[in-house]
Design brief:
single chain; about 500 residues; alpha/beta; Spo0b-associated Gtp-binding Protein, Chain: A; Rossmann fold; five-stranded mixed β-sheet; 12 helices; 13 strands; about 15% strand
Length: about 500
């Protein structure tokens, strides 16, 4: 079956049936009245997710899909039959986009999910619906409404529990065929797999869906080698199985090449759970497999493990050359051969110890580096918090001072109200006109003291209650006495 993961289709829901304008026509019955029935509803276009589908190829050959329209109503109040819904089956993981191919409408993530892509039109009303006490023979009826129609895009993104990734010809399809019932194309050349393949494996009484993702080449995130079409399928995989051909000369480069493509396409892909699998181990010596496995278990850092494998491969190449030299010594003494073999064994043991020391040293350096980064990060955070706190305190203090100054200014202005000063001077003028020099002098003295107190206290943000009473006494002695008695009563009550 050919694979297709994107298609553009046209969908049209059925129109509603028209209402009937019928009247009763029976023998011996005059003015039988209306008996027109309603029209049936139009069928809708429904998309449904199916488990056994893994391609959109069927929509390539049929791109126009229309549901049935509703039947018109008829006499004797018979309602027309509704049109049948059109159910389009799509693979699990299909996404529905609007005509712009950017706006996501729906995403199928469960088997059996249904989505009404286009609603059918409502049936029209027959003339029976319009009968009333004032209109006994209505001729009015309505036509059925038009069903919805859209142009939509369907995009398939494979949903799997495990996605097998790696470079071309790493053995991904072979693994899928070995552990599932899938039958992918397998051959000893690159780009054998051009489309994702799905398989189901039974493990611990559970079904595990596995996807074979085509090999990723350098520049895949830019579209090289259909890379973008392959990478989008990896987005829906819960975890990744990164397969590496152990016969490659540079295993670290093989690993990083795929990781770089994943990260450049989406940072989320590089953070997925990953299991590294070294394939084609049958092509190397059994002793190498044992050492590689034991080392990979000990070393938690994946990059360090790959570095070790590279180092070990170089070492084994050297040992293999020396083995060939020993095989060429056919005429020598047995003791000499034994000594050579023992020397080779000890050299390999010394090299293995050197490798272990190197691995431990690298692990220690990594731990120290991580700890230093954490310490620097915490220090920077504390400095930023301190700077923010100082800035906040200064800002609040400045705002408070500004508010107090504004309040003091408003208070001074209210106290120095021109109307108040005018009345005070007018009172002095009345005393002078009445030749009451004594009262005029007394009033001027009190007014000047009041102004002086106001001016002196306006420099402060807060003043004591005693000073406030003193100012009030200059303004109105009676009010000051009353307020003083009340404050004295409050102090005695709560003391």
């Amino acid at each position: 079956m050919k694979f297709l993961d994107q298609v553009k289709i046209y969908i049209k829901a059925g129109n509603g049936g028209d209402g009937s304008p019928s009247f009763r026509r029976e023998k011996f019955i005059e003015y039988g009245g209306p008996d027109g029935g309603d029209g049936g509803n139009g069928g809708s276009v429904i998309l449904k997710a199916e488990q056994n589908l893994n391609t959109l190829i069927d929509f390539r050959y049929q791109q126009h899909h229309k549901a049935k329209r509703g039947v018109n109503g008829s006499g004797q109040n018979r309602t027309g039959k509704s049109g049948d819904d059109l159910v389009l089956k799509v693979p699990l993981g299909t996404q529905v986009f609007e005509e712009d191919n950017k706006t996501l409408i729906y995403d199928f993530v469960k088997v059996g999910e249904k989505f009404v892509a286009a609603n059918g039109g409502k049936g029209g009303l027959g003339n029976t619906r319009f009968k009333s006490s004032t209109n006994r023979a209505p001729r009015k009826f309505t036509k059925g409404s038009v069903g919805e129609e859209f142009i939509i895009y369907l995009q398939l993104k494979t949903i799997a529990d495990i996605g097998i990734i790696g470079l071309p010809n790493a053995g991904k399809s072979s693994l899928l065929a070995a552990i599932t019932n899938a039958n992918p194309k397998i051959a000893n050349y690159q780009f054998t797999t051009l489309n994702p393949n799905l398989g189901v494996a039974n493990y611990d009484d559970k079904e595990v869906t596995i996807a074979d993702i085509p090999g990723l080449v350098e520049g895949a995130h830019k579209g090289t080698g259909l890379g973008i079409q392959f990478l989008k399928h990896i987005e829906r995989c819960k975890s990744l199985l990164h397969m590496i051909d152990i016969t490659n000369s540079d295993l670290k480069k093989s690993y990083n090449q795929v990781k770089i493509e994943l990260k450049n396409y989406s940072s989320k892909l590089s953070k997925k759970k990953e299991l590294i699998v070294l394939n084609k181990t049958d092509l190397i010596d059994k002793s190498e497999i044992t050492i590689i496995r034991n080392t990979a278990r000990v070393i938690e850092n994946k990059e360090q493990a790959l570095l070790f494998i590279d180092f070990y491969t170089i070492l084994e190449d050297t040992i293999a050359q020396r083995r060939e030299k020993l095989n060429m010594i056919n005429n020598g003494k047995g003791v000499e051969n034994l000594l050579q073999l023992e020397l080779l064994r000890k050299e390999k043991e010394i090299s293995q110890n050197a490798i272990n020391s190197l691995v431990k040293e690298d692990a220690l350096k990594e731990d120290v580096l991580v700890a230093s980064r954490w310490a620097i990060g915490l220090l920077l955070i504390l400095i930023l918090i301190g700077l923010f706190a100082v800035f906040y305190i200064l800002k609040v203090s400045k705002q408070r001072r500004t508010a107090n100054q504004k309040l003091a200014l408003r208070t001074l202005r209210s106290q120095m109200n021109p109307h108040f000063i005018f009345n005070a001077l007018n009172s002095v003028n009345s005393f002078i006109s009445e030749n009451d020099q004594r009262s005029a002098n007394k009033f001027l003295t009190s007014f000047s003291r009041l102004m002086r107190l106001v001016m002196e206290n306006s420099e402060y943000d807060f003043i004591s209650t005693q000073k406030e009473l003193e100012i009030l006494e200059k303004y109105s002695p009676e009010v000051a006495k009353t307020l003083s008695r009340r404050m004295e009563y409050i102090r005695e009550t709560f003391s």
